[in-house]
Amino acid sequence: MFDQQEFIARIQKIMNYYSLTASALADQLGVLRSSISHLLSERNKPSLDFVLKIINKYPEIDLYWLLYGKGTFPKEEVQNPKESIPNEIIFPPSLEEKSYVKQEILEEKEIQKIVFFYKDKTFDIFENF
What we know:
β1 (113-117) and β2 form a beta hairpin. The chain starts with a helix and ends with a strand. It has a two-stranded antiparallel sheet. By secondary structure, the protein is mostly helical. The chain contains six helices and two strands, in the order ααααααββ. It has two domains: 4-68, 434 Repressor (Amino-terminal Domain), CATH 1.10.260; 93-127, no CATH class. The protein has helices at 4-17, 22-29, 33-40, 48-57, 63-68, 95-108, and strands at 113-117, 123-127.
């Protein structure tokens, strides 16, 4: 769940990391200085447009870290899959093993949310199945 105070703390961490004042951050994002002030004082909640401007301006900021504090800041570089080829061959489980694993997963886990991320940096969230 989104926590505005924690979000504000993450914005302040970003400002400290880049040595920015609230005014400088507003200028870099192309938003009004008052919008940053209102956000930091908890008068207003962040808009999707504001969040996307941060993600677009600073690609090293992970969306989930910014919104929910999950992940790292700055985000870790994703390794090239070709560079991380394992030394051993992993064979798929047999049909018997697959049905057992599938049944175990279905019994223990329930899907809460599915998120699709698109190349244009937009996303869709599907909840409440």
